[in-house]
Design goal:
This protein is of the alpha/beta class and about 280 residues long. The protein folds into 2 domains: about 80 residues; about 190 residues, Rossmann fold, CATH 3.40.50. About 30% of the residues lie in helices and about 20% in strands. It has 8 helices and 12 strands. It has a 7-stranded mixed β-sheet, sandwiched between helices. Strand 3 and strand 4 form a beta hairpin. The longest helix has 17 residues. It is elongated, with a radius of gyration of 25 Å.
Length: about 280
């Protein structure tokens, strides 16, 4: 489908000149009648196969019509596509208001939410991509089960005044979350101890504005197929911190025989057991 982007409508500069959009991404001088009529049709959209027959009915040759569309290509937008379907998995302790805000953001971001369930769920029951919501850190076992089930997934990790979204994990193709932990452990050998404490700490409420923005960004990662990138948001700043991620050589996530086994072990065995989860390591 060929269509002018809504941000680039035809705007008259003079009785014989048109620009497309306020920034004039394309300009047509000495506008022919057939060009004017074709632009008018492109506002609503033209199926690809109908371009030349329609242009011919307006009096244009095939060559002229093809050249004209190439000339205004910078003003063309993408035709609406069917929204990607996803499942959403949330922690059992996530509040109703927070869940509702997240779902509204995901739908507003262009996703078709097929269902929302509290973890654990049977990952093998559906191969739909999963938006996996967690407090502070996505449980490695939870992530490993999604990889083992060959289920694409994107985490949203809630930390009250900070949220991390991504990366979009496509098993066998991209870095998995175990790869991220392996890279962090290589940079800081104490990371497993730190991660274990994060997993054991209680949930904290996350600000609604952050929840909504996080859901919109997660939807964009899924709908856009953005691989190998995560983004962190903070309540105290309008800046977004993007990070690129690559597979770790020691992780078997891209090996059919050993999906997500290298770093998906349950590190919670070393987690503090005090009520505050702030015990000093032995």
């Amino acid at each position: 489908m060929l269509r002018l982007a809504p941000s680039h409508p035809p705007l008259w500069r003079s009785p014989s000149s048109i620009q497309l959009g306020p920034e004039a991404v394309a300009r047509v001088d000495d506008v022919a009648v057939w060009q004017e009529r074709l632009l008018d049709a492109l506002v609503d959209g033209i199926p690809d196969a109908m371009l030349l027959p329609l242009a011919a009915s307006f009096g244009a040759s095939a060559g002229d019509a093809t050249a004209f569309v190439r000339r205004i290509s910078g003003a063309l937008g993408r035709a609406p596509e069917a929204p990607p379907r996803v499942r959403v998995e949330v922690p059992a302790e996530l509040g109703h208001a927070e869940t509702t805000t997240l779902l509204a953001g995901l739908r507003g971001g262009g996703l078709d939410v097929a269902g929302c369930t509290a973890w654990p769920v049977d990952a093998a029951a559906s191969r739909l991509p999963v938006v996996a919501v967690a407090h502070r850190l996505l449980d490695p076992l939870r992530a490993a089960r999604l990889v083992a089930a060959d289920t694409p997934h994107v985490p949203i990790e809630l930390c009250g005044d900070r949220v991390t979204i991504g990366p979009l994990v496509v098993p066998g193709v991209t870095a998995c979350l175990a790869c991220l932990h392996a890279h962090r452990r290589a940079a800081d050998p104490t990371w497993p101890l730190v991660a274990a404490q994060l997993l054991s700490r209680g949930a904290v409420p996350t600000e609604p504005a952050l929840l909504l923005e996080a859901a919109l960004l997660a939807a964009r990662l899924v709908a856009g197929g953005v691989l190998g990138a995560s983004v962190a948001l903070s309540a105290g700043s309008v800046r977004r911190t993007w990070r690129a991620h690559r597979p770790h050589a020691a992780c078997l996530c891209r090996s059919p025989a050993g999906s997500a086994t290298a770093d998906a072990r349950d590190d919670r065995s070393s987690a503090p057991t005090t009520a505050t989860a702030f015990a000093r390591p032995a």
